[in-house]
Amino acid sequence: xxxxxxxxxxxxxxxxEGDADPLYHDTTWTETLYFSSSAAFLGYxxxxxxxxxxxxxxxxxxxxxxxxxxxxxTTHILYLNFYExxxxxxxxxxxxxxxxxxxxxxxxxxITRHPSRLKILFVAIAGVFSVFLEAxxxxxxxxxxxxxxxxxxxxxxxxxxxxSFIKEDGEMRTSAIMKKIR
Length: 182
Prior knowledge:
Blueprint: H1 2-15, H2 28-54, H3 59-82, H4 87-112, H5 117-136, H6 147-181
């Protein structure tokens, strides 16, 4: 469960992908590493969202779901690293993966009737909004606040709400397992 929370928290940071942030893009090596790691984290978090949404417990069905996504993400990372570092393509791929992940979490919240479903719905809706703000790259307002700044500002409360959901979900699942054991 902690791994799920960690990957989704990193996915919030990686969802704001494709900008010209000089901190991460000063050399070709760091730029490649930045784009590759964001695609890898988003791909992994998409796998976790699908597994949780479909409630797959059988190992064979988990592998059947994860293998194509893992193959796509690996191929995409290899394309970026060894053929062409296409920032526009990487931004499109990361945006689609982020939107799919947020929609899957919203679907999971509606289907399962989880006690903390409102938190996850809020995170999903605000996450999609944040990704669209980043993708459309809103010009600076008042000379200071642009789409990237708004996206980063949104990710702060979203991370807190997501972690509170992870904590509550972990406590709920642990108590359910403990009830079964007794």
